[in-house]
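Reading group handout, session on sequence-to-structure problems. Before we discuss, look at one worked example. The prompt was deliberately terse, the way you'd type it at a terminal:

> structure DUF4282 domain-containing protein

The input record follows.
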Amino acid sequence: MRDFIYGLFDFRFNRFITPVVSGAVLLILYAAATVGWLGFLFGGDSYTPFIVRFLITAVGYPLSVIGIRIWLETMVALTKIANITAEIKQHIKEKEEE
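And the output record:
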């Protein structure tokens, strides 16, 4: 928990909180997508027939869930790359000092 708080206020970005909060962010985004698509399905405009809204939702909802997952995985992967790069940089610096 202390690392998480430290990471929030680390303005030099030495520690990243993305891997820590990614599960909660994923859950929140999935819930938002679900509510949004259900709102579109059942509360959409009255001029669009229900079957059309259903078909749009049947295609759009899975695509949005996949897109959310890919986006979040990309953010976590970039964070891990940054961490590994920092470790490599530190290792090279230590070798140069020897």
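Points for discussion. First: Helices lie at 2-8, 18-43, 50-97. Second: Residues 50-97 form the longest helix (48 residues).
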